[in-house]
Amino acid sequence: MATIRMQNISTSYCLKDINLTIHDGEFMVILGHSGAGKSTLLNILAGFVGHSGDLYFDEKRMNQIVTQKREISYLHQAIHLFPHLDVFDNIAFGLRVKGMSKGSLEKKVSEIMETLHISHLKSRYPKNLSGGEKQRVGIARAIVTKPKILLLDEPLSSLDEATAQEIRTELKILQEKLHLSVIYVTHTIIDAKVLAHRVVGLNRGFIEYIGTPQEIFKN
Amino acid sequence: MFKKYILNFLLLNSPIFLFLIIWELAGRIAQTPLLPSFSTVIIEFYHLLYSGIIVENLSHSFVRVAIGYLLGGLLGIVVGILMGMNVMIERSLKPLISLLLPIPTLGWLPLMMLWIGINEALPITLIFICAFFPVAYATLLGIKEIPYEYINTAKSLGASSWYILIRVILPLASPSIFTGLRLEAGMVWKTVLASEMFAIPTGIGSMMIQAESLIRVDIIMVSLMLLAFMSFSFEKSIYWLEHYATKNWR
Question: ipTM score of the complex?
Answer without folding.
Answer: 0.92
